[in-house]
Design goal:
alpha/beta; Aspartate Aminotransferase, domain 1; Aspartate Aminotransferase, domain 2; 2 domains; seven-stranded mixed sheet; three-stranded antiparallel sheet; 13% strand
């Protein structure tokens, strides 16, 4: 952890976060990105990086220039730190349960590629585009039998409907904890996992809109697998993603075709066995040479999130959402958010949400539209004044 971050977190104390304290102690950690003049409410999409992120990447590049192949020493330490930080974030039982990946989709494919036979997969129509696209591609190639559960009339998804699609079959369930379009937190996930297990199936949870935004205890959930990444709430940009594999699947019996030389017991020995012998534990799910800089890039955001505390970040997120909701209500704009059953952004239902987002951008407010939902994601860098101004701009457009 950088000395600046350590000092900022120490100065914050352990009390609930306040705008005044954040302005004084945390905003200086984000000087570069806060120089931008717009009101940034797409924090649920691409998270804003700390200044330390650029310094971390620069140091990793310096190692390349100055040490050449010896740079692998600090690089491998950075990847191990990434795995340990993510394990702490989601309360994984050990760090090798976390397998570095370049995308959540890559993590999903690693599990799909453990299937020796065509199997039934149950998912929802609310999964992120990449997850949806990959599952459809596997189905079209005859690799899986795909069942997709629709939303109800309010656009929400329910565990009961997923279980109805599962029936009594041993299936692979792929489901988000927080839906990317609406911010709905899907309830009763523990019951879903227990029921699927009782029928001989497995569950992969997409935690991309959960990890870092709200508390996640993967051991309590007991999911077999999970995917996530640093692009959004963890402020790590693209490329630093991960696959979680429960220890019960790390006994060597589950083998994926997504593999490479880093999955060998001693990759740097450069010795070839007669068969593809895999490393023990989670390292068996590693692949070829990793894109090191992506995991270096993610370090500052992960350290920031863990140091401030997800519980406090969640409470402050709900505070910012409530302020935005109140401001929108004064402008006559109906919105959904600031509730315990919602994630880290507010949604406004609109038939042309993408057009509305473009119009807001022209007025200096950055948000985004997904199908019929305008997404507004305030975070701890957004001031109350900004949220009121954004609501006024939106009120003029709807």
């Amino acid at each position: 952890m950088s000395s600046a971050l350590e000092h900022a977190v120490s100065s914050l104390g352990r009390d609930a976060l306040s705008e005044a304290a954040l302005r004084e102690h945390v905003f200086p950690l984000f000087k570069r990105v806060l120089q931008r003049s717009e009101i940034y409410l797409a924090n649920h999409s691409l998270g804003r990086p700390l200044d330390q992120t650029a310094r971390d990447v620069s140091l990793a590049l310096d190692a390349w220039y100055e040490r050449m192949d010896e740079a692998w020493e600090p690089w491998l330490k950075a990847i191990e730190a990434f795995r340990m930080n993510v394990a702490e974030l989601i309360h994984a039982p050990r760090f090798d349960c976390i397998v570095p990946k370049t995308s959540a989709g890559q993590g999903l494919r690693a599990i799909l590629n453990t299937f020796d036979e065509r199997g039934k997969v149950v998912t929802t129509a609310g999964e992120f585009d990449s997850i949806d696209f990959i599952l459809k591609a596997y189905a079209e190639r005859g690799r899986i039998d795909l069942v997709t559960v629709a939303a109800d009339e309010r656009g929400e998804f329910h565990v009961e409907d997923v279980l109805a699609a599962v029936k009594q079959d041993a299936v692979f369930v792929v489901l988000s904890m927080v839906m990317f379009e609406t911010a709905q937190i899907v309830g009763e996930l523990e019951r879903l996992v227990r029921t699927v297990h009782s029928r001989g199936g497995t569950v992969l949870l997409d935690l991309y809109h959960a990890a870092g935004a709200l508390p996640v205890d993967i051991q309590t959930l007991d999911a077999d697998f999970a995917v996530g990444g640093s692009y959004k709430y963890l402020r790590g940009g693209p490329g630093a993603c991960w696959l979680y594999v429960h220890p019960r699947h790390l006994d060597g019996t589950l083998r994926t075709l997504d593999t490479g030389w880093f999955a060998k017991p001693q990759p740097f020995s450069f010795q070839r066995a007669a068969t593809a012998e895999l490393a023990s534990g989670g390292n068996a799910f590693l692949e070829s040479t990793p894109p090191v800089l992506a995991f270096v890039q993610a370090r500052a955001g992960l350290e920031f999130t863990l140091s401030v505390g997800v519980d406090r970040l969640r409470a402050y997120s709900l505070n910012r959402q409530a302020i935005l909701m109140q401001a929108l209500a004064r402008e006559g704009v109906e919105a959904i958010g600031a509730r315990p059953d919602r994630g880290a952004f507010v949604v406004v239902v609109h038939p042309d949400a993408a057009r509305l987002a473009r119009a807001l951008r022209a007025q200096g407010v950055l948000a985004d539209g997904r199908s019929s939902y305008l997404r507004l994601g305030p975070d701890l860098l957004n001031t109350e004044e900004e949220l009121v101004q954004a609501a006024r701009q939106l009120g003029k457009l709807v």
